Amino acid sequence: MKKLTMTLLALMMAGSVLAGCNTMHGAGEDISEGGEAIQNASQ
Hints:
Layout: H1 2-42
């Protein structure tokens, strides 16, 4: 029973980390697109 609990906890933590990375990646893309829009507007 303890092994199952630890396995489930590890899977939940891994899922949280992957979701967090995906969110940060999306935020980075949004910021990059905003920067490109500002550069294009200034030209």
